[in-house]
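Methods — Computational structure assignment.
A single polypeptide chain was analysed. Its primary sequence is given first, followed by the predicted tertiary structure written as structure tokens.
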Amino acid sequence: IWVAVQDDLTEDSLREKFLQRDVCLSDLDDTDAHSPARQLAFQDIMGGLTHPEYQEWFFRSLISLRNGLKEAEHQSWKRYVEISLRTPEQRQKAAAEFIVYLQDFLYPHVPELYSLIPAQKFYVSRNIPEVMDPFVQFLNFTGWYGEVEDKEQFTHSFVQDHPQFRNYLVREDAHDGNGM
């Protein structure tokens, strides 16, 4: 369903289209919730990490984001994971720090929206599993695909690998040019 280019959709026809979907693929960050990834990095910034690799990451990311370099946020997150979330213990600790506020991350009415969609629902995100899983469980999703670098390629593969699905609902913000 491409709602952005279908101005003639009525609320009733849109509702009907949602109910007819077999599967829903959705991004998490900035689509259904405020970015947990940004929150994890922000917590480290506020925590005053002094590790040299982290300081280098922080300043390089700041310059890249300020200069508006393409995919700066994506590359910054990828490097952050390499530096700050290397071990399972680091990942679990980071996820535990925000999981208490899970509902605060979600945009208004997201749980209600998904409760109305009978399709199988999957998150497709660059996020780490420890971030994805609590959202999947809370929203009663079928599953998730985490640390997906190329969401467009993933979506093409998903469609080919799952011929049982014919009617897709794809939700994303695609502000980074890496759309599904």
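Note: The chain has a mean pLDDT of 79.
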